[in-house]
Amino acid sequence: MRLSARIRYEKSVFVDCRKDIFIVKGVNLSLLGLKVKDDALNICKEKDVVIFIELDKEVSLKGKITRFGDDDFVIIFNENPELIASTVGKYLTSRIYKSGICPFCSKKIENKERYCKRCGMFFDYTKPEVVRFIQEFKVGKIFYDLLVEHPEEIEEKLEDRKEFIGVSERIKEVFDLIRKYATNNYPVLIIGETGTGKELTARAIHERSKRADKPFVVVNCAAIPENLLESELFGYEKGAFTDAHRRKIGRIEFANGGTLFLDEIGDMPLSMQAKLLRFLEDYTFTRVGGNETLHANVRIIAATNVNLEEAVKKGKFREDLYYRLNVLTINIPPLRERKEDIMVLAKYFLNRYAKEIGKDIKGFTPEAEEALLNYQWPGNVRELINVIRKAVVLTENMYVSEKDLNLRREEVDTAYCLNGRSLNLKENIEKVERELLRRAFLKTGGNITKMAKLLGISRPKVYSLIEKHHIGEITD
Ligand SMILES: Nc1ncnc2c1ncn2[C@@H]1O[C@H](COP(=O)(O)OP(=O)(O)OP(=O)(O)O)[C@@H](O)[C@H]1O
Ligand SMILES: [Mg+2]
């Protein structure tokens, strides 16, 4: 278990191994066990022991000693989940809340929320069912599944509230449509180039609608493999296929009462388009491998950056689905066609990032403003945000210069995580490595196999990098 939160625990612990009592030094503590560094424990390897450990008060816990690596041992607790929750769980939980940030993705914890609204990992280990879940799964697993199995736990996973900014006539038309479309339940189709704000628009409609207190669930049709899309959307019953060890609720069911955002709908495979169309006839469906007809009250918002009419002509998109989705449409113009928004957005993000990293930056030089206005922004607002964020980090001036913007150079996705003050290659590589690891973690919900695939490295390497960069470790 690498991905349940753990804490550095470098205190002395008593280990009663029936024959002898050892005093050993701890390394770290997690829900599943305590890692220690002491060869003395070799004698009682594989034995049942009792440890006396100082948490909020001293507690004794039963466990078994296993060797871990060359000179590390882990005492795996074999206590019942109730006891673990009320001792180690309580201790870890209080330390996480004290640290104020998610140990998995570093998001700030607000209002004592019980799980991270960004990465889905749990903060509250005081519940025996959470301990049981972690004990059973052994490896970190996205807690989304757990949440869906416990409807009382369901809350919307909202990203930080985002501002929607713009002053141009074209974007005001978009705002106007958002307000109008929020009042009904018809499907909405949002069309726009990459980075223009399609998802932001979909969320804005949801947040202004009567469904606002229900989930907004995103399905990226391009990112989910064709053979998984159906079960992802509709869920499956236990035994539906080899790996279906238990029932899984699909995203449509999860979104019940709320909004289902079908992103990159143009990339949905034709076979799935037929199934979606059938669902949209009367909003009923069955889980894969099941025969119960279920009904979901969801509003569909779809987005695309490909021309669906063209796709229909080429036979890549079903015409009947196109007409069903294309009831209400929003076209978000590219940034270069609404130049009035460029400086408003640029100044907004400049202020925001300068404040965030505590730099006193007053604005842009006239040349920089001109460069921003003349640039074509192929990546639209997302690209603008990246450019500004990078300039804020790199600039040494009170006014960001044209050079700081570095507009001609191709935008590198990981550029913002470079260490702005240092050109030391090793330091920067470490930083990028950690950042990519975090991103892979967020994208896969901590699934090691998927992380290995995304990062193009082996699973053991993923484990060792998680260890190296202390992902999941509580710091205070
Ligand atoms: N008008 C705006 N005001 C403030 N932020 C914006 C605006 N438009 C876009 N953004 C921000 O730009 C980023 C990209 O927006 P979003 O993800 O909604 O784009 P998208 O059209 O869905 O892109 P893609 O097609 O690549 O998925 C987000 O961080 C979003 O918050
Ligand atoms: Mg998007």
Explain what the structure shows.
- The chain has 476 residues and is of the alpha/beta class.
- The strands form five sheets. Strands 2-3-4-7-6-5 form a six-stranded antiparallel β-barrel. A five-stranded parallel β-sheet has the order 9-12-15-8-16. A two-stranded antiparallel sheet has the order 10-11.
- The two termini are 22 Å apart.
- Among the domains are: 169-333, Rossmann fold (3-Layer(aba) Sandwich); 336-411, Helicase, Ruva Protein, domain 3 (Orthogonal Bundle), CATH 1.10.8.60.
- It is 38% helix and 18% strand.
- Bound molecules: adenosine-5'-triphosphate and magnesium ion.
What would the keywords be for this entry?
476 residues; Rossmann fold; Helicase, Ruva Protein, domain 3; five-stranded parallel beta sheet; binds adenosine-5'-triphosphate; binds magnesium ion
Offer a concise description of the structure:
With 476 residues, the protein is of the alpha/beta class.
Mean pLDDT: 84
**CATH structural architecture of the domain at 169-333:** 3-Layer(aba) Sandwich
User: How many beta-strand segments?
Assistant: 19
Shape: globular
The main sheet orders its strands as 2-3-4-7-6-5
Assign the CATH superfamily of the domain at 169-333.
Answer: P-loop containing nucleotide triphosphate hydrolases
Distance between the termini: 22 Å
Largest sheet: 6 strands, antiparallel, barrel
Name the structural class: alpha/beta
- Alpha carbon gyration radius: 26 Å
CATH fold call of the domain at 169-333: Rossmann fold
Low-confidence stretches: 138-161, 409-417
Number of DSSP helices? 17
Heteromolecules bound: adenosine-5'-triphosphate, magnesium ion
CATH class type of the domain at 169-333: Alpha Beta
Beta-strand percentage?
15-25%
Q: Helical proportion? A: 25-40%
